[in-house]
C-alpha cells in the first residue's frame, strides 16, 4: 500500500459575496411621544477574493473533513432609517409636549470598510453501508468590521438619524447532524 493514500489536501481560490443584513425596529404607542416608530437597517455587502484549504482523511469507514476559508472582504454598508414621531400628538394635550409637532424623517448613508472574514468547517462521517452514512459537523464564521443597526441610531429629537457607533465583530457557529442515503 502507498503511504498516506487516504489523505487529500485541496487548495482553492475564487471570489465570494456575503450579505449581512441587520434591522432594528422600535414601535411605541401612548406615552409622551404618542404613536411613534423608527426602523433602522444596515446592509453589509462583502465582496472580495477568497482562499480556501481543505483536508480529507479516510480511515476504514470513518471520513474526516476539515476546511478553512479566508475572505479579504471589501464591505459596502448601506444605511437606511425611517422614523415617525408623535403621529397622533395634539400640542398642549395632557401628558404631551406643548411644542412638539408630529415629525417624519428618512435618512440614508453609505460607508466602506475592510471586513476580513474567516470560516471553518469540520465534519466527521461514518459509512454504515455503501448507501448509508451518518454525519456530524461544526461550522464557525467570524466577520470583523461590520455595522449593526442598533448601535448607529442617533436619539436626538425630533429628527433622529445616525451616529458613528463604531464597528463590531460577529461570530456565528453551529452544529450539524444528518444522514446520507444513496439509492
Overview in brief:
With 183 residues, the chain is mainly β. The protein has no helices and six strands.
Secondary-structure topology with pairs:
Elements: E1 7-28, E2 36-59, E3 62-85, E4 103-127, E5 132-146, E6 168-181
Antiparallel strand pairs: 1-2, 2-3, 3-4, 4-5, 5-6
Structure description:
The protein has strands spanning 7-28, 36-59, 62-85, 103-127, 132-146, 168-181. It is mainly β. It has a six-stranded antiparallel beta sheet with strand order 1-2-3-4-5-6, with no helix packed on it. A hairpin with a 2-residue loop joins strand 2 (36-59) and strand 3 (62-85).
Q: Tell me the helix content.
A: under 10%
Count of DSSP-assigned helices: 0
Strand order of the largest sheet: 1-2-3-4-5-6
What's the order of the H and E elements? Answer: EEEEEE
Q: List segments where confidence is low: pLDDT < 50 over at least 5 consecutive residues.
A: none
Mean pLDDT: 90
Radius of gyration: 25 Å
Strand content: over 45%
Describe the global form.
elongated
Structural class: mainly beta
Largest sheet: 6 strands, antiparallel
How many angstroms separate the termini? 31 Å
Number of strands: 6
Relevant terms:
6 strands; 183 residues; elongated; mainly beta; six-stranded antiparallel beta sheet
Amino acid at each position: 500500500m502507498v503511504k498516506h493514500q487516504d489523505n487529500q489536501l485541496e487548495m482553492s481560490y475564487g471570489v465570494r459575496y456575503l450579505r449581512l443584513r441587520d434591522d432594528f425596529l422600535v414601535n411605541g404607542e401612548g406615552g409622551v411621544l404618542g404613536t411613534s416608530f423608527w426602523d433602522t437597517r444596515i446592509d453589509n455587502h462583502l465582496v472580495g477574493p477568497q482562499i480556501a484549504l481543505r483536508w480529507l482523511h479516510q480511515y476504514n469507514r470513518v471520513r474526516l473533513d476539515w476546511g478553512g476559508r479566508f475572505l479579504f472582504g471589501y464591505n459596502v454598508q448601506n444605511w437606511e432609517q425611517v422614523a415617525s414621531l408623535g403621529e397622533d400628538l395634539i400640542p398642549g394635550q395632557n401628558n404631551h409636549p406643548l411644542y412638539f409637532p408630529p415629525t417624519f424623517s428618512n435618512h440614508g448613508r453609505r460607508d466602506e470598510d475592510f471586513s476580513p472574514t474567516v470560516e471553518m468547517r469540520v465534519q466527521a462521517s461514518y459509512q454504515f453501508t455503501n448507501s448509508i452514512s451518518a454525519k456530524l459537523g461544526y461550522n464557525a464564521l467570524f466577520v470583523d468590521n461590520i455595522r449593526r443597526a442598533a448601535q448607529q441610531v442617533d436619539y436626538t429629537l425630533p429628527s433622529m438619524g445616525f451616529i458613528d457607533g463604531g464597528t463590531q465583530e460577529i461570530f456565528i457557529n453551529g452544529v450539524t447532524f444528518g444522514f446520507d442515503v444513496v439509492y
